[in-house]
């Protein structure tokens, strides 16, 4: 990694090596984020309080708050707006999960019954709205530029969800449409996480822009790696049922590569990808064919390209431990897919 690790390294988030002091400071500040997060979802109404804390207390990696904290090291990490900004992005992320579970008719989230299955769709939707409102309340103290950034990211989140729901138009390139959905629905908030951290810590404008762009690419890469893992991993590796996207009819990166091809040897797989794969036998057949298909290697190549593009941008930043942590994430997002 970087020479910035000369002072010793420790295992940081996702198992990447980070500077010992940076790791300790990040853990300490993540604890502060957690405290403010719990305070922010408090309500005097018992049901709303219980529903709002439901996903907060279920845990999660706090990936987006961590990016805020790491990015703040390109300026003054002790700046007053950094911790609230980290809570804002996590509240926004959690709110989208409540809404996603309603749209997907999900029954489980983070190993617990989803809010919509535990209560009702209406309660889940309104709880998500409440978390958006609490995020806005915190944003109001961070200044108009932060409010504008969040509003534009929220617009992208909604656009990505609508585009995913409707699907590509007949004249559109399905792969380009898919990547745009990934950028809007997933990468936009990850980009804002880096942007908030650098901006609110007072980093120079060109540094803020670079961190924002690199984080968006990391966000795309994380989603692409999830696509690959959904197909390639065994249940005991990922903790999820393999081929979930296949079963639900969600076309992800490897599938798009198969469908874009014209090889007659792929006719059976293309037929299966267009079929209802809720049948266990058909699902197993499709999963086996897809795992063995060259489309998986193409998807891994795409993933490496996104991660390397992010790394190239990050390496233009000051050589500090936080930069090494960011480049470590680029390594991790590739290595996790094998």
What does it look like?
Belongs to the FPP/GGPP synthase family. Pfam families: polyprenyl_synt (PF00348). Its cofactor is Mg(2+). The chain has helices at 20-40, 46-56, 63-71, 82-104, 115-118, 121-139, 144-166, 174-200, 205-232, 235-238, 244-248, 253-260, 267-273, 280-291, 295-314, 321-335, and strands at residues 9-11, 17-19, 108-109, 112-113. α7 packs antiparallel against α8 (174-200) and α12 (253-260) packs across α15 (295-314). It is globular and about 60 Å long. It folds into two domains: 20-167, Farnesyl Diphosphate Synthase (Orthogonal Bundle); 204-338, Farnesyl Diphosphate Synthase. Residues 1-7 have low confidence and may be disordered. It starts with 8 loop residues before the first strand and ends with a helix. The longest helix is centred in the middle third of the chain and has 28 residues, at 205-232. It has a two-stranded antiparallel sheet. β1 (9-11) and β2 (17-19) form a beta hairpin. By secondary structure, the chain is mostly helical. It contains 16 helices and four strands.
CATH architectural group of the largest domain: Orthogonal Bundle
Q: Say which CATH homologous superfamily of the largest domain is assigned.
A: Farnesyl Diphosphate Synthase
**How is the largest sheet built, in terms of strand order?**
1-2
**Quick check: average pLDDT?**
88
Shape: globular
Spans of 5+ residues with little confidence (pLDDT < 50)?
Answer: 1-7
């Amino acid at each position: 990694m970087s020479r910035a690790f000369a002072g010793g390294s420790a295992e940081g988030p996702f198992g990447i090596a980070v500077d010992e002091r940076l790791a300790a400071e990040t853990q300490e500040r993540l604890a502060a984020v957690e405290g403010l997060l719990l305070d922010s979802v408090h309500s005097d109404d018992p049901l709303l309080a219980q529903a709002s804390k439901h996903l907060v207390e279920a845990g999660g990696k706090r990936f987006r708050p961590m990016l805020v904290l790491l990015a703040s090291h390109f300026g003054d990490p002790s700046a007053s707006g950094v911790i609230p900004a980290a809570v804002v992005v996590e509240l926004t992320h959690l709110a989208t999960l409540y809404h996603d579970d309603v749209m997907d008719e999900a029954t489980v989230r983070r190993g617990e019954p989803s809010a919509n299955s535990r209560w009702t769709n209406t309660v889940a939707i309104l709880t998500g709205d409440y978390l958006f409102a609490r995020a806005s309340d915190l944003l109001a103290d961070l200044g108009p530029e932060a409010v504008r950034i969040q509003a534009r990211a929220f617009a992208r989140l909604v656009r990505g969800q609508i585009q995913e729901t409707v699907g590509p138009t007949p004249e559109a390139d399905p792969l380009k449409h898919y990547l745009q959905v990934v950028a809007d629905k997933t990468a936009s908030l990850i980009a804002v996480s880096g942007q908030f951290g650098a901006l609110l810590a007072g980093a120079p404008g060109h540094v803020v822009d670079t961190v924002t762009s690199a984080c968006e690419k990391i966000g795309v890469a994380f989603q692409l790696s999830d696509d690959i893992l959904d197909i390639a991993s065994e249940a005991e590796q990922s903790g999820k049922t393999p081929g979930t996207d296949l079963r639900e009819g969600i076309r992800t990166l490897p599938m798009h590569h198969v469908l874009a091809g014209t090889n007659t040897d792929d006719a059976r797989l293309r037929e299966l990808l267009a079929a209802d794969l809720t049948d266990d036998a058909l699902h197993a057949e499709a999963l086996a064919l897809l795992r063995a298909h060259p489309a998986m290697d193409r998807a891994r190549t795409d993933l490496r390209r996104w991660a390397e593009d992010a790394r190239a941008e990050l390496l233009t930043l000051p050589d500090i431990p936080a930069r090494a942590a960011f480049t470590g994430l680029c390594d991790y997002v590739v290595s996790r897919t094998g």
